[in-house]
Design brief:
The protein is mainly β. The chain contains three helices and 20 strands. Strands 1, 8, 9, 11, 12, 14, 17, 18, 19 and 20 form a ten-stranded mixed beta sheet that branches. A four-stranded antiparallel beta sheet has the order 7-6-15-16, with no helix packed on it.
Length: about 210
């Protein structure tokens, strides 16, 4: 896996299968092609800008005014934060982690991006993963974020159970079932107070190069 961006030109930068069989005249079972059930893509909205994992590009977010940054550890063990370069060329068929979008000083989103079969500029890479940390945000700031059309200020544990009855988990977390192979969703709640949403993530799985040189 690669870090999502790196300076100086060095890249560092969350189905149901329905098998069916029929019996022919010979009495032998004959397997039919497995039908793949399309999995739902639950969108995330920040300041009325919709993000759909596997579809939304980095450039489309930059064009909407979002600032995407990377924090890099210096030789002096200090973190240096810089904005990404959308023109930086990324390798083909690769997954990059380590980026962040800051909504406020307390609310941020970890972000990963992915490339396709050809090398592309970073701005054309697709959002593959979003992980929201919501602790410390006040209600006005949290209202700027929605998951599947519902403001996260309303998305407590009970509401999550109503919205996603096929998910599994307990009072502290609620996540998509193992039968979903392509997309995964996770919601974590504050069990110490009112079971409000503290963290959530959305991800699309990709068959990409996880181990190439950084």
């Amino acid at each position: 896996m690669k870090n999502i961006f790196k300076r100086s030109g060095i890249l560092a930068l969350l189905l149901f299968f329905i098998p069916t069989a029929v019996t022919g005249c010979s009495g032998e079972k004959k397997e039919e092609p497995v039908e793949e059930v399309e999995e739902p893509v639950y969108p995330v909205t920040i300041d009325n800008v919709e993000i759909r994992i596997g579809e939304t590009t980095v450039q489309s977010l930059l064009d909407k005014g979002f600032k995407m940054t990377v924090s890099e550890l210096t030789p002096d063990n200090e973190y240096y934060e810089y904005e990404i370069d959308p023109e930086l060329e990324l390798e083909a068929n690769s997954y990059y982690t380590g980026g962040s979008i800051w909504i406020t000083d307390q609310i941020f989103v970890h972000i990963s991006i992915v490339t396709d079969e050809e090398a592309i500029r970073m701005g054309d890479a697709v959002i593959a993963y979003l992980d929201f940390s919501l602790a410390g945000g006040d209600e006005a700031d949290l209202e700027r974020i929605a998951f599947n059309g519902v403001p996260i200020t309303e998305l407590n544990r009970d509401k999550a159970g109503e919205m996603f009855p096929d998910f599994t988990g307990d009072e502290n977390m609620w996540f998509s079932p193992y039968t979903m192979k392509e997309y995964s969703y996770f919601l974590g709640f504050n069990s110490q107070t009112d079971y409000s949403l503290m963290r959530f993530s959305v991800e699309k799985e990709y068959d990409v190069d996880w181990n190439s040189e950084q």
